[in-house]
Amino acid sequence: MKWILMIAGLFLALWGIGLLPVNDQGSQDPERKLIDLSGKLLLQVKKDEPVDSLREVLSKIALDRLVSGLSSDDARKTFWINIYNAYFQILAIKEKKTRPAIFEEKLITIAGTRLSLDQIEHGILRRYRSKFSLGYLPQFFPGKIIKQLAVSTIDYRIHFALNCGANSCPPIAFYDYDKIDKQLSIAASSFLKTDSQVDTLKKQVMVSKIMQWFKADFGGNKGIKVILQKYLEQDFSEYSLKFKEYDWTQKMKNFES
Length: 257
What we know:
It is built from eleven helices and five strands, in the order H-H-H-H-H-H-E-E-H-H-H-E-E-H-H-E. It is mainly α. The strands form two sheets. It has a three-stranded mixed sheet with strand order 3-4-5. Helix 2 packs parallel to helix 5 and helix 5 (73-94) runs antiparallel to helix 7 (117-125). The longest helix is centred in the first third of the chain and has 22 residues, at 73-94.
């Protein structure tokens, strides 16, 4: 038993070390030209224009440049949300990828690094949190590059910005570095107001399954109610929560009008 406890303790210690940030991601100003590439890719997807040349440009960016150029969370969120939304459309429409491969396979090359959509969402944008466990557990050994690219703080609003081609997904918007905070708040407000269903008689509010899948990102049930109160301007402290079934019916190119 003693040896088992020692081995378990060593494993947990190594796991904890593996979760520590690699280094300070820098305080220099983000590189606008680099960030803008993500928006250009998404625009070409929307307009059904060729994307191969721009994909090649993104693949050949130096990793050091990518890490230093995305030097703030606003820069990282802007770049990776646009990249995620662009690449889901590319992989689903052009390359005919479907679930679960479209999320799990490393089909995207950025800065010479092969990435999956899951790595972008859960590794980078959710700061290497588990895809499962309602978001309460971190990933085991996410890897040096993911830690270098990850945001410093999880922003629950990204869940109202990422589009996975399903009917229940939020629409696709073009995120801009100078407006990212305001845009994410608008996305959260719009999604919650249109997707949530409030039953005042039953004291029940039905919300997206997304908020259950990643409950920890929203601060648990209590945090969800606080968020709902913020955007729906109603006190939900005495309400029960019910999570709607997710409609995976395909709805491609659902760009915000």
